[in-house]
Design brief:
By secondary structure, this protein is mostly beta strands. The protein is built from no helices and eleven strands. The radius of gyration is 13 Å and the shape is globular.
């Protein structure tokens, strides 16, 4: 059973950047599509984006396109979410997942990102 652990969240001001990490252990990583979703208080889960198993293809939600970048290093079993030009509406718990959205087979416990002045 794969385990996914997110880190890198925090409290930041609008306009700054933040980089999230997702480290996988205990299962196959490099052959699966992986991605991120987020959930704000009182709201449904929201797809953020995913990266193909090879890292060559990334797809993003319109709300983050042009600001967020997903990448992965299969040798390190790690996926990244680079978030630039953060906005207050990006405030949420961010989760990494493995598999196909909207039914991933695994996800982590999440890391809190708060964007506030």
């Amino acid at each position: 059973q794969v385990q996914l652990v997110e880190s890198g969240g925090g409290l930041v001001q609008p306009g700054v950047s933040l980089r999230l990490f997702c480290v996988a252990s205990g299962g196959l990583f490099s052959v699966y599509r992986q991605g991120w979703f987020r959930q704000a208080p009182g709201k449904e889960r929201e797809f953020v984006g995913y990266v193909s198993w090879s890292g060559d293809i990334a797809v993003y939600a319109d709300s983050v396109k042009g600001r967020f970048t997903i990448s992965r290093d299969n040798a390190k079993n790690t996926m990244y979410l680079q978030m630039n030009s953060l906005k207050p509406e990006d405030t949420a718990v961010y989760f990494c997942y493995r598999g196909q959205w909207p039914s991933p087979d695994s996800w982590g416990q999440g890391t809190q990102v708060t964007v506030s002045s």
